[in-house]
UniProtKB/TrEMBL annotation:
Limits of the EAL domain: 23-277
UniProt superkingdom: Bacteria
Protein name as annotated: EAL domain-containing protein
Range covered out of full length: 594 to 872 of 880
Length: 279
C-alpha cells in the first residue's frame, strides 16, 4: 500500500497478517478436522432440580488437534461462524449426537433428550427442517429425544421467517430451548411470541447468585415469568451448593453445571447414566 513506511504501520500490517494467517490456518485445519474425524463430542448432564435425576444431556463439540491438543469451542466456533463452516460442523454434531443417544437407548440406558446447539446461521442459509428430518431418519432416534438450543441472537433480524421455521420444528415434536437467555437483546415480553418450551438461563446470572440480591431477584423474575408462559427453565453453570439451593427455592426446573458434572466423553457419560439408573 501507499502508506508504507511508518514503523507503527508496519507493525500494524504485520499483526493483521499474523491474524489473517492464523485464521487461515485454523479454517483450513477445521475443514480437515471434519474430514479426518478430529471433532468429538462431550456430554454434560442436565439434572432435575427436585429429584436429582439426570433428565437430559447437552452435546458439546471439541476439536482434538493432532499437534495442538484439544481446542475448546470458544476458540473455533466464532471463526467457523464467520466462514460459514459452522453449518457443516453443526450437521456433523447433530447426526453424531442423535446416533449416540440412540445407541445409549438401544443399550438399555434411561431415555433422555439430547440437546444440540445450533448456530443462528442455519435460520438464514439452509433447509433446516429437511436436515433435521434426515438426521432423525438416519439415526433412528425418536424426535421427542432431540432438543435444539438456539441463542436469542437468532431473533434479532427477520423474526417472522425464523418463527415460521421454529414452529415447523416444534410441530415435528422436537423440543426447543432458548440458550444463553438474558445476555442478548430479546426481552422477557418477546418470549411469549416464540414457539419455545424451555429457557436456559445464562451462567453469568447464576454465578454468585446466592450473594447478590439484585441478580437473585432477576433470576427469580425470569423463572416466574417463564413458568407463567408454561415454559420450563434450566440454569446453566451451577457450580456451588448455594447456587443450587437458591435455584431450588425459585423452582427452577433443571440444573446444569460443574457442581453436578463437567462435560464428559461418551463412555464416561454412559457410565454415569447407567449407575444412576441403579440407585
Ligand atoms: P453454551 O451452549 O452456553 O454451553 C455451555 C458452556 O458452559 C460449555 O462450554 C460448558 O462446558 C460450560 N459449562 C458448563 N457448566 C459450567 C460451569 O459450571 N461453570 C462454567 N464456568 N462453565 C460451565 P464449552 O463446551 O466450552 O462450549 C462453549 C460454547 O461453544 C457453547 O456455549 C456453545 O455456544 C458453543 N458450542 C459448543 N458446541 C457447539 C456446537 O456443536 N455447535 C455450535 N453452534 N456451538 C457450540
Ligand atoms: Ca447450549
Ligand atoms: Ca451459556
Ligand atoms: Ca443399569
Amino acid at each position: 500500500a501507499k502508506a508504507r513506511g511508518g514503523n507503527s504501520f508496519h507493525f500494524y500490517e504485520k499483526k493483521l497478517n499474523d491474524m489473517f494467517e492464523e485464521e487461515m490456518l485454523l479454517d483450513h485445519g477445521l475443514r480437515e478436522a471434519l474430514l479426518k474425524d478430529q471433532l468429538v463430542l462431550h456430554y454434560q448432564p442436565k439434572v432435575n432440580t427436585f429429584t436429582g435425576a439426570i433428565c437430559g444431556v447437552e452435546a458439546l463439540v471439541r476439536w482434538e488437534h493432532p499437534e495442538l491438543g484439544r481446542i475448546p469451542p470458544d476458540k473455533f466456533i466464532p471463526l467457523a461462524e464467520s466462514s460459514g463452516l459452522i453449518l457443516k460442523i453443526d450437521e456433523w454434531v447433530l447426526l453424531e449426537a442423535c446416533r449416540q443417544n440412540k445407541a445409549w437407548q438401544d443399550a438399555g440406558l434411561p431415555k433422555i433428550p439430547i440437546a444440540v446447539n445450533l448456530s443462528g446461521l442455519h435460520f438464514s442459509q439452509t433447509h433446516l427442517v429437511e436436515l433435521i428430518q434426515q438426521v432423525l431418519e438416519q439415526s433412528g432416534l425418536d424426535e421427542k429425544y432431540l432438543n435444539l438450543e438456539i441463542t436469542e441472537g437468532v431473533f434479532i433480524k427477520n423474526v417472522d421467517p425464523v418463527i415460521d421455521t421454529i414452529t415447523r420444528i416444534r410441530d415435528m415434536g422436537i423440543q426447543l430451548s432458548i440458550d444463553d437467555f438474558g445476555t442478548g437483546y430479546s426481552s422477557l415480553s418477546q418470549l411469549q411470541r416464540l414457539p419455545i418450551s424451555n429457557v436456559k438461563l445464562d451462567r453469568s446470572f447464576i454465578h454468585d447468585i446466592a450473594d447478590e440480591p439484585k441478580k437473585a431477584a432477576v433470576v427469580k423474575a425470569i423463572i416466574d415469568l417463564a413458568h407463567s408462559m408454561r415454559m420450563t427453565v434450566v440454569a446453566e453453570g451451577v457450580e456451588t451448593k448455594n447456587e443450587m439451593n437458591y435455584l431450588k427455592q425459585c423452582k427452577c426446573d433443571e440444573l446444569q453445571g460443574y457442581y453436578f458434572s463437567r462435560p464428559l466423553p461418551a463412555d464416561e457419560f454412559s457410565a454415569l447414566l447407567d449407575s444412576e439408573d441403579d440407585w
